[in-house]
Amino acid sequence: MATTKFAKREKAGGGAAEAPAGPLPITQDAPRRRRRPVVMGAGLALSAVGALIAVWMVNDAGDRVSVIATAKAIPAGAVIKPSDLVIAHVSRDAALHPVPVSQKAKIIGKAAAADIPAGILVTKDSVRDTSSLTQGKDITGILAKPGQLPSRPLEPGDEVTVVYTPTGGNGNAQAQGANGKNNGPDSQPAVVTRVGDADANGARVVDVATTGGASTTLAAWAATNSASIVLKAKH
Fold first, then answer.
1. DSSP designation for 39
2. Using one digit for the tens of pLDDT, what is the confidence trace for 46-56?
């Protein structure tokens, strides 16, 4: 009897409830996690750094200068014309020393110190003064083919000797002195001012500067393709 009463009493007192069947409903009453102040401060600091970097990049991109660049390829020795140049806008760089647009007039009229490709920034070393080569001198263009030029490429400023070499050794190639002895072929000293590009046959025009009326002689030799150019040894 005692056992029966205890069982009844447990049932009446509301014993352990049975587990509900099915999934539990989702509610909005779950406790929210509090953000730590350190994490919030780090996030704000990263945002501020990102903003500063963005501002710096924008300002750096806008800090550009106008300089001179080549519009087309310029061969060594060629006198630079306004049409040879264009304006380029580049960022400031301590490693570069391009000529600013404000000094464009100082570049025009000078000669290219070496072959300058198209699209290259022009510096003060890209050009040289031509007055020392051409002032008070005549310029003669000589079309010379392989065999009439040294194998080493000629450059503006090279001192050369233009030698009269008529085909077959005729003409005045062997000048006779007053004593009747052979004085060797006629020749004229000159200075190279420009070297043109080679054509399909390898021939190229070489402009040379001379004094003392030698230009007419050189022109006559060049007209008959009877001029060879010899590079003088540098001392």
1. H
2. 766 666 666 55
- For CA atoms 194, 197, 199, 200, give the dihedral sign: positive
Cα 185 to Cα 8, 143, 177, 226: the distances in Å are 145, 19, 11, 12
Q: Are 191 and 232 within 8 A, CB to CB?
A: no
The residues pairing with 79 across neighbouring beta strands, listed in sequence order, are: 111
User: Whole-model pTM above 0.70?
Assistant: no
pLDDT, tens digit (0-9, with 9 covering 90-100), for 103-124? 988 888 888 888 889 999 999 8
CB atoms within 10 A of CB 221: 24
Return all residues near 211 (Cβ < 8 A) that are at least 6 apart.
136, 137, 138
Q: Which two tokens stand for residue 108?
A: 């025009």
| Amino acid in position 73 | A
